[in-house]
Amino acid sequence: MNRAERRRQAKATKKKPTGEEKTSPPRLDITRIKSQLQQAASPQEVQQFIGQLREHGLPQAGGEELIAYAAQYHEALAALNSDDKEASVAFLVNSAHAWADDRIDQSPDRNRRACKAGCAFCCYLPVVLVSAAEVVYLADWLRVNCTPEELAAVRSRLEARCEQGTTSLPDQKRLPCALLQDDTCMAYEARPFKCRGWNSVRLEACERAYGQSQATTKVPVDTFAFVMGNAVLNGLSDATQNAELDGGAYELNAALLRALDLPDATLRWRNGERLFDVGR
Ligand code: SF4
Fold first, then answer.
1. Cβ(138) to ligand 1 under 6 A?
2. What is the DSSP string of the chain?
3. What are the residue ranges spanned by the domains of the chain?
4. How far is CA 233 from CA 69, 125, 189, 206, in A?
5. Atom of ligand 1 nearest to the CA of 194
6. Which of 61, 129, 153, 256 is most buried by a 10 A CB count?
7. What pLDDT score does 198 carry?
8. Chain segment 81-116, per-residue pLDDT in tens
9. Cβ of 260 below 6 Å from ligand 1
């Protein structure tokens, strides 16, 4: 399914389901729902199933989330069937990022967002989680787009962050992401789903959170954008897992450093190796 088709399908979810779709009442059980979406043979089947769920209480936003998930799942599986294994990874992640951005842009709260270029409060944080596919893609992106000096600098920041250690404990202090350079993400185009979906709607809350521990700070975010970023990420991760590839989530610093250490990380991930389970 290409992006135009996915958009059409997302729009179609806003239509009311027909009487015919009311016939078989599904239970709102997420494991069963995901499995049924994965088995759907066409966008029309996805559409029909979500129409049935709506008839049984699924809210509008829930339907849009499932559409985003299913579209990504099926597109990722199709990309993983490509013979050109290395190129398919770039297509896989690029296309998933573009789909997530497209959905995130549809947020009813997009005009309330406080985020702007050069504002990097949210890039000071204890942990960034990334999928294995994103890590190998990000390492390739850095190799292509950075000068040798920039690459050396980012490696040294990654090493420093790994030595500092990162935990998700509540009192973990927020530290600058290793990809932050002059208060700008040096890999903005290739940044992870978690960063794409995180959009503050209150600048003062970001300022208060800056440098504080996770436990003491709460930042209100654009919820629709957050949910959509995660829905697309889940579609990608489930497809990679079902294709018997590593679909796990990893801490950015250690995983990216490992991917940069391995020039053939993309091909090795694509061949089913689990590259990021081991500590450095
Ligand atoms: S990857 Fe980029 S956007 Fe995400 S936390 Fe790091 S610097 Fe910020």
1. no
2. --HHHHHHHHHHTTSPPPGGGGSS-----HHHHHHHHHH-SSHHHHHHHHHHHHHTT--HHHHHHHHHHHHHHHHHHHHHT-S-HHHHHHHHHHHHHHHHHHHHTT-TTGGG----TT--GGGEES--EEEHHHHHHHHHHHHHHS-HHHHHHHHHHHHHHHHH-----TTPBPEE-TTEETTEETTGGG--HHHHT--BS-HHHHHHHTTSBGGG----B-HHHHHHHHHHHHHHHHHHHHTTS---EEEHHHHHHHHHH-TTHHHHHHTT---SSS--
3. 3-110, 111-222+244-270
4. 8, 20, 16, 24
5. 4
6. 256
7. 93
8. 888 887 789 999 999 999 999 999 999 999 999 999
9. no
Q: Which candidate, 22, 23, 53, 11, places its Cα nearest to that of 36? A: 53
From the CB of 228, is ligand 1 less than 6 Å away?
A: no
Amino acid at 68: A
**124-125 and 175-176 as β-strands: parallel, antiparallel, unpaired?**
antiparallel
Question: Model-level pTM?
Answer: 0.86
275 Cα–ligand 1 center, Å:
22
Query: Do the Cβ atoms of 71 and 238 come closer than 8 Å?
Result: no
